[in-house]
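Chain A, query sequence.
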Amino acid sequence: MVLRTFGWSFAITALGLAFAAWQWGWEAFGVVLILSILEISLSFDNAVVNAGILKKMNAFWQKIFLTVGILIAVFGMRLVFPVVIVAISAKVGPIEAVNLAMDDPERYEALVTDAHPAIAAFGGMFLLMIFLDFIFEDRDIKWLAWLERPLAKLGKVDMLSVCVALIALLISAMTFATHAHTSTGHADKSATVLLAGVAGLVTYLIVGGLSGYFENKLEEEEEREHEEEEKAKAEGKQVSAVGLAGKAAFFLFLYLEVLDASFSFDGVIGAFAITNQIFWMALGLGIGAMYVRSLTVYLVRQGTLDDYVYLEHGAHYAIGALAVILLVTIEHEISEIITGLIGVVLIAWSFLSSVLRNRRLAAEESQEKELAAKEV
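Chain A, predicted structure.
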C-alpha cells in the first residue's frame, strides 16, 4: 500500500536529486534535498485538509489530482508563479523575468520580496476564510469544546466569517502594510495589501461557492440515482449514470488547486531564504509537493480521517495559524522553522487527542459489554 501510493514520489525524488547533482553539483543536491524537506514540513496540514475533500471524489479524480494536479502544483506554483509575480512587480515580460532570475538572482529575489505583501495578503485571506468557515460551523465532534462551542453559536450570524476576515485585513493593512519592508527600505503598501486581500477573499468565495454548489447537486443527484437504481432493480433494468459527478468533481478539484496554491505561498517565499536559483527551488519544492499529494491519497485510502477524528480540526487550526503568520509577515520576518513547527505541533496534538479518544471509547465499550454479560 505504501509503495503503491508513494512509489512515484520515491522515483521522482531519486531522479530529481540525481539530476541536481549531475547538472549543478553537490551544492545543488543538498539545497534541493533541504527544500524538499521544507515543503513537506510546511504542507503536512495541507495534506490533511486535502484528504477531507479528496475522499469525496472517485478513483478517477484522485488520479487526476496526482497527475494533472501535480503538474499544476510543480510547474504552476513552484516555477511559473515566482516568475509571474516578478514580471508583474517589475513590469517586465515573463521571458525577461526568467532571464533576470538566471542572470541576476539577487535582483530577482529583491523583486519577489517587494511583491511579498501582496502575496501574503492574498494567501492569508484565503486561508483565514477556510479556518473561519470551519470554526464557526456547529459540528457533532468537537476537539477544543471550550472554544468551539461558543464560536459555533456565534457562527449562526450570517456572513460573520467574511466580516471577521475583512476586519483582520483592515488591521493588517493599517498596522503592518504602512511600513512594509521592500528592497529599498520601507514603503506604504496599504492599498496593495487591501486590494490583494480582497482578491483572496473573492477568490475563496467564488471557488468555494462553486465547489459547494456542485457538491450539493452531486449529493442530490446521487440520491435520485439511488432511488432510480432501486426501482430499476425491482423491474430488472439498469440506469446509466449521468455526468454531473464530473462537474462536481471538477470544481472540487479546482478548489483543491487554489487551496494548494495558498498553502504553497509560504514555501515559495521561504525558499528564497535558502537559495535564489529558481530551478533549484522548483525541483526541491516540486519533490516536496509530490509527497504532499501522495500523503493526501494515502490518508484517504487508509480512512485515517475517520479513525482519527480530530486530525481535521488540528489541520484547520494550523491553517488559521498560517493565515495569521502570513499577515504578520507583511512587515515582520518569521522563521520558516516556526511556521512549520506550529503546523506539526497542532496536528500531532490533534492526532494524540484522537488516539486517547479512541482508547477511551474502546474502554467504555468494553465496560458496557462486561456489565451486559454480568446481567445475563
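Residues 190-235 form the longest helix (46 residues). Confidence is low (pLDDT under 50) at residues 239-244.
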